[in-house]
Amino acid sequence: MMEVSIGGIIGLYGGMLFGVLGWWFGRKKAKENRGLDELYYHIWQKARSYAWYVTLGAIYVFFSLIMFGVELSTAMVLGILLLAHVGSWGMIGIIMSVNMTSTAPLQPSRVKIGISVIVFTIVSILTNNWLFLLVSIPPNLIGLITALIPNRKYSEE
Amino acid sequence: MKNRIRELRKLKKITQEELSKQVGVSRQSIIAIESGKFNPSLELAYNISKAFHCTIEEVFLFEEGRM
């Protein structure tokens, strides 16, 4: 029988708990400003739809790696798939929300973010070290925030 | 789809916030609809038009060949 990973259990269920709490609190705040309207559902349904394309791509990448003889652990594959799906869902949702209300559409450098994610993913697989993938989160987040700030100006005429 | 929301809002001296409260959506939705980035549902289009005492065709300008 496999070993029980206490850290993994705390991370998995703790992450889910914080995720659900964040989701609930976000909806509560949005409801106060009539934010749970048809635009909200349109954006987040679209984002989920695009996130499935990203997940599909990630599944193909993992299958290719297995074909080329790279050994992958179940936890690593499931973890990256979860990150790719939930992460892209959130990021696409935020970008779409900003684009809907800003005068100049947000055009973050998809290439830079994409390359950064791919490079860190390959490094983490080759070195078999998860930390490289986690390290990729801050630069991608900073890149996204930097791209968001200049375009958030919208003045009501 | 083009619309005359901004023009009608100025005419009636209604802010985006006030219009959003009247029709029960967020101000962000009004911004998105006004700028033509989001096409509202028939129900919301009807409510927006009603807020200006207009018909849907008077507020939303359907462009043929753009569907």
TrEMBL record, chain B:
DNA-binding as UniProt keyword: yes
Claim: Ribosomal protein is one of the keywords in the record: no
Database matches in InterPro entries: Cro/C1-type_HTH, Lambda_DNA-bd_dom_sf
UniProt cross-references to Pfam families, sorted A to Z: HTH_3
Superkingdom classification of source: Bacteria
Domain HTH cro/C1-type stretches: 5-59
Gene3D superfamilies from the UniProt entry: lambda repressor-like DNA-binding domains
Keywords: DNA-binding
One GO MF term: DNA binding
SMART domains linked to this entry: HTH_XRE
Protein name listed in UniProt: Helix-turn-helix transcriptional regulator
Organism of derivation: Gracilibacillus oryzae
